Amino acid sequence: MKRADFEHWVRSELDAVESALESWVPADSPAGLGVAMRYGVLDGGKRVRPLLVLAACEAVNGNREAAMRAACAVELIHAYSLIHDDMPCMDNDVLRRGKPTVHVQFGEAQAMLAGDAMQALAFEVLTPDGDAVPAALQARLCSLLARSAGHAGMAGGQAIDLASIGKPLDEHTLRDMHHRKTGALLQASVLMGAATGIPTAGQWDALSAYGDALGLAFQVVDDILDVTQASETLGKTAGKDQDNNKPTYVTVLGLGAARRHAAELRDKAQAALARSGLANAAWLSLLADKVVDRDN
Amino acid sequence: MKRADFEHWVRSELDAVESALESWVPADSPAGLGVAMRYGVLDGGKRVRPLLVLAACEAVNGNREAAMRAACAVELIHAYSLIHDDMPCMDNDVLRRGKPTVHVQFGEAQAMLAGDAMQALAFEVLTPDGDAVPAALQARLCSLLARSAGHAGMAGGQAIDLASIGKPLDEHTLRDMHHRKTGALLQASVLMGAATGIPTAGQWDALSAYGDALGLAFQVVDDILDVTQASETLGKTAGKDQDNNKPTYVTVLGLGAARRHAAELRDKAQAALARSGLANAAWLSLLADKVVDRDN
């Protein structure tokens, strides 16, 4: 019953996110820029970050309009980072979400610009005219998103990643890299959703701990799937970390220990949720399971 | 007298902007990312956009802390766009502000990441904790900056620029490209400064018209300097537009008409300032002269 409700909620939210992105990512932007942006973000991806925003909003009974904007903004940041990450000067990847990558389809210059414009668009989406999203909440959401996307978060993690190719990393450095590269934006998704309501300080801290554990779990599972799944299941090139000689949780811990670590992190996320005392945290709880149990 | 005061004001504000950027662009960011970011934005550039923000703040007697943050944020956006624009997949330029470009110095991947992190940092700088900048003003500044940097502004203009290489453009399309590519961010600089105070609707419109005319004048003069100045005066590769077969105001209008057009736009900017009725608009007025009369 709960599981069926959850699947229904997921499908319905994914439709809502897709419609919102459809309306906010411009089709008519000049010189094909909008077309490249839409190609990079519409109709693809697991949308884990938007679902986390929306589930956290439900948990705190928050402002739905603000949460939908935050959900799309964080997905725009994630999608732009994939576009730039796939470019020849970074991972040089040709397949993403089962399609040719943006630079393969539209050229490198357009791919870089589309990514740049998507980052700006994320902050446009967070700062609408009118009073549906109070100005103080707009500022708070911009602050959370910018800090998780920037030098201390995602971009910083990518720089560590870049510098680590071919080098042995200990678990501590690997964890620091992933905290920033993937964890920061996933945790920010939870906190942006939480910010749309009025959680207590204790609830905020518990949701922060949930987001932190879930963010790391996500990356551990990603590393596991990179060696255990075929490219067609993943929708992106499998075995890529190994080919690029990148340290991963699997290379550092081994496959068995990586699986146990993912399970521990899930437990940690669930414990944090229980600690929050939030009555409506069911979707967050089931999302943590979904992140760990996924096969792509 | 006024001229000497102005030069003193400019020097003192440039020092203040440099100190603020020094403090906000991280030296210790991981894996050399902060070093690349600082290389790309510190100690260089004419800082036209920060000066416009600060002069507009003076004109409306606005919030100084907010204006300094907006000044640095808009310069971060400008500097990131130069880093990405100089990369091999775009203009492939090796010289900027008299130094090797960021990708020449640090590699393409780090240059792309540094640019990405600088865009995020702009929005971090605009959304500080505490109450020195009221939340509503933070949201307004983020909105103005995001819209001028994104698909409808700077990034959109660059996409048109990219698509126009080797094609004849009429003056209308050239103007549209520059309105977005350079004009949007220059105009936003004026409006962000204005937003730190409480201008009347009429003053806002007049400052918007001033920023619009000044933004176009800036680009017309850039096109003139590209053919009339040597690389060492410009601090970047001269004759680059011609080499890249890019349409410019000089190729479309001819040099003499381009010069007359720049003078007309300056007059238009000054007329808008006069219309604003703002008592403290002297720096804005002298900045319009400076933009048109510059030799680099």
Could you walk me through the main structural features you see in this protein, from its secondary elements to its overall organization?
Chains A, B: It comes from Piscinibacter terrae. Chains A, B: Keywords: Isoprene biosynthesis, Magnesium, Metal-binding, Transferase. Chains A, B: This is Polyprenyl synthetase family protein. Two copies of one chain form a homodimer. With 296 residues, chain A is mainly α. Chain A has a single domain, classed as Orthogonal Bundle (Farnesyl Diphosphate Synthase). The first copy, chain A, is 73% helix and 1% strand. Chain A has 15 helices and two strands. Chain A has helices at 2-24, 33-41, 48-60, 64-85, 102-106, 108-125, 135-149, 154-164, 171-195, 201-228, 231-234, 240-243, 249-253, 255-276, 282-293; strands at residues 95-96, 99-100. A two-stranded antiparallel ribbon of chain A has the order 1-2. In chain A, helix 7 packs antiparallel against helix 9. Chain A starts with a helix and ends with a helix. The model of chain A has no long low-confidence stretch (mean pLDDT 93). At the A-B interface, helix 2, helix 4, helix 6, helix 7 and helix 8 of A face helix 2, helix 4, helix 6, helix 7 and helix 8 of B.
Could you state the order of secondary-structure elements of chain A as H and E?
HHHHEEHHHHHHHHHHH
Task: State the helix count of chain A.
Answer: 15
| CATH architecture descriptor of chain A | Orthogonal Bundle
Mean model confidence by pLDDT of chain A: 93
- The name of the CATH topology of chain A is Farnesyl Diphosphate Synthase
Family (chains A, B): Belongs to the FPP/GGPP synthase family.
Protein name (chains A, B): Polyprenyl synthetase family protein
Cofactor (chains A, B): Mg(2+)
GO molecular function (chains A, B): metal ion binding; prenyltransferase activity
